[in-house]
């Protein structure tokens, strides 16, 4: 099984596939997907846990941020992302000067931000979605907070840019995966895809392709389409693909050395800053 669309649909369905012994390769990023103890779950994208960790290291080491304030929305996604970011940022030498909490329905952050401002952070990290990050960054500007906002993939969206307006500039966000042009087989794949379908490649397409090829290769090596026979082979996958020269899974089914890209808003557009791993 190749899918599903997101973590919300992938996780409930994974139990059905596990009970039937059918391998499932998903683009889902929620850590819970591969933490259920199933032998049938695999993913082609880095998890939110991995993303938060990479972002924390990037902030503390690459950007040299020493004083960081953190806010999260208390959801499983937002809190998990912020927790991993905090661990990595501390390991990279940064000090967490404040940690605050909100919820995924809030739109007024003035009280939280006023408190954060007093701590004089170099960076504000938010674990949550664009619907809260956009008003948050606008209120940061209003209050005179000059530190940039950083977040995860649920903020790296057109919606964030639209709602935040000019206040979005300078915001940094991580996104699972690499830009197509940085994938080992990206250009060739894009050219062939365009020729075949007459359209440009969409974000998850190369990862879905590599996932499908991992399944097909496992079936060929096992000389069988019986999941019971090719599942053990799939778990030991190590192949050259479009997205990476070494597509492989760890014991839980998480992608080894998955790519993550950091983006920054410049003149109202998301621009890649640095790609980490995945090659």
Structural summary, described in words:
With 279 residues, this protein is an alpha/beta fold. It has two domains: 7-46 and 182-248, 3-Layer(aba) Sandwich (Rossmann fold); 49-176, Response regulator (Rossmann fold). The chain has helices at residues 7-20, 48-62, 76-91, 110-118, 130-142, 158-164, 186-197, 205-222, 227-235, and strands at 24-26, 41-43, 67-72, 95-101, 123-127, 149-151, 172-176, 238-239, 247-248, 260-266, 269-276. The strands form three sheets. The protein has a seven-stranded mixed β-sheet, covered by helices on one side. The protein has a two-stranded parallel sheet with strand order 1-2. A hairpin with a 2-residue loop joins strand 10 and strand 11 (269-276). Helix 2 (48-62) packs parallel to helix 3 (76-91), helix 5 (130-142) packs parallel to helix 6 (158-164) and helix 8 packs across helix 9 (227-235). It is elongated and about 65 Å long. The mean pLDDT is 95.
């Amino acid at each position: 099984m190749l899918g599903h669309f997101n973590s919300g649909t992938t996780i409930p369905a994974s139990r059905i596939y596990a009970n039937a012994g059918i391998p499932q390769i998903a683009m889902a990023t929620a850590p819970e997907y591969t933490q259920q103890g199933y032998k049938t779950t695999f993913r082609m994208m880095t998890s939110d846990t991995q993303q938060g960790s990479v972002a924390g290291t990037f902030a503390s080491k690459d950007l040299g941020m020493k004083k960081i304030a953190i806010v999260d929305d208390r959801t499983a996604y937002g809190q998990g992302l912020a927790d991993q970011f905090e661990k990595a940022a501390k390991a990279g030498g940064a000090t967490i000067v404040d940690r605050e909490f909100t919820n995924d329905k809030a739109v007024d952050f003035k009280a939280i931000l006023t408190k954060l401002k007093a701590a004089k952070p170099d960076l504000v990290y938010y674990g949550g979605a664009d619907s809260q990050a956009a008003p948050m960054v606008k209120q940061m500007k209003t209050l005179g907070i000059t530190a940039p906002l950083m977040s995860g993939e649920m903020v790296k969206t057109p919606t964030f840019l639209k709602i935040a307006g000019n206040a979005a500039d300078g915001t940094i966000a991580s996104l699972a995966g690499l830009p197509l042009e940085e994938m080992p087989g990206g250009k060739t794949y894009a050219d062939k895809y365009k020729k075949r379908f007459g359209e440009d490649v969409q974000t998850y397409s190369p990862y879905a392709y590599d996932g499908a090829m991992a399944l097909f290769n496992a079936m060929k090596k096992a000389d069988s389409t019986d999941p019971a026979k090719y599942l053990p082979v799939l778990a030991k996958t190590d192949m050259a693909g479009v997205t990476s020269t070494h597509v492989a899974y760890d014991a839980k089914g998480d992608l080894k050395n998955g790519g993550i890209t950091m983006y920054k808003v410049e003149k109202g557009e998301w621009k890649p800053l640095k790609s980490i791993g995945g090659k």
